[in-house]
C-alpha cells in the first residue's frame, strides 16, 4: 500500500526467506510477468492504493524438513547490478517496504 501522499513510481518486489544458512532470494512467478523472480508494477501507485501479486514462490527440494521465514520486499534492487529506476523509488520512509514474515515448514520427503 502506498502510505505516502504522492504517487509511487513503478517498483519491483523480491521474495526472500530467512533460513538456517542465511537470507536468500527465491523465485516468485506471477502470471503475466516476464521475470520469474521479481514481479514489478507497470504504472504509478496512487496515494492510498495498493497492489497485490498472486504467484508461486519456488524452493528447491533441499529445503525438506526445514523451517524458513518468508517475506516480500517492495522497492527491492535484489538481482540488479546497476539499480534501475524501477527499484529505487525515493520515499520518506524506507523502513516499511518489507512484509511480515510467514513461517513455512517443509515436510521431510520419504521414499
Count helical runs: 0
Compute the number of strand runs.
5
| Tally of discrete structural domains | 1
Residue stretches low in confidence (pLDDT < 50, at least 5 long) are none
What strand order characterises the main sheet? 3-2-1-4-5
| Rounded radius of gyration (Å) | 15 Å
* Proportion of strand residues: 25-35%
Q: What class, by secondary structure content?
A: mainly beta
Tell me the distance between the termini. 44 Å
Order of helices and strands: EEEEE
Q: Outline, from the CA principal axes? A: elongated
Work out the helicity level: under 10%
Major β-sheet profile: 5 strands, antiparallel
* Oligomeric status: single chain
Overall pLDDT score: 81
Textual characterization of the structure:
The protein has 111 residues and is mainly β. It has one domain. 0% of the residues lie in helices and 27% in strands. It is built from no helices and five strands. It has strands at 13-19, 22-29, 56-58, 67-74, 102-105. The chain has a five-stranded antiparallel β-sheet with strand order 3-2-1-4-5, with no helix packed on it. Strand 1 (13-19) and strand 2 (22-29) form a beta hairpin. The N and C termini lie far apart (44 Å).
Summarize the structure.
The chain is mainly β. It has strands at residues 13-19, 22-29, 56-58, 67-74, 102-105.
Secondary-structure map:
Layout: E1 13-19, E2 22-29, E3 56-58, E4 67-74, E5 102-105
What tags apply to this protein structure?
0% helix, mainly beta, five-stranded antiparallel β-sheet, 111 residues, elongated, 27% strand, 5 strands
Amino acid at each position: 500500500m502506498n502510505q505516502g501522499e504522492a504517487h509511487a513510481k513503478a517498483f519491483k518486489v523480491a521474495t526472500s526467506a530467512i533460513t538456517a544458512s542465511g537470507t536468500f532470494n527465491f523465485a516468485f512467478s506471477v502470471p503475466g510477468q516476464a521475470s520469474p523472480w521479481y514481479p514489478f508494477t507497470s504504472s504509478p501507485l496512487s496515494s492510498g492504493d495498493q497492489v497485490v501479486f498472486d504467484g508461486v514462490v519456488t524452493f528447491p527440494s533441499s529445503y525438506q524438513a526445514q523451517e524458513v521465514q518468508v517475506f516480500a520486499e517492495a522497492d527491492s534492487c535484489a538481482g540488479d547490478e546497476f539499480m534501475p529506476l524501477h527499484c529505487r523509488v525515493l520515499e520518506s520512509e524506507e523502513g516499511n517496504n518489507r512484509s511480515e514474515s510467514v513461517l513455512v515448514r517443509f515436510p521431510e520427503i520419504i521414499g
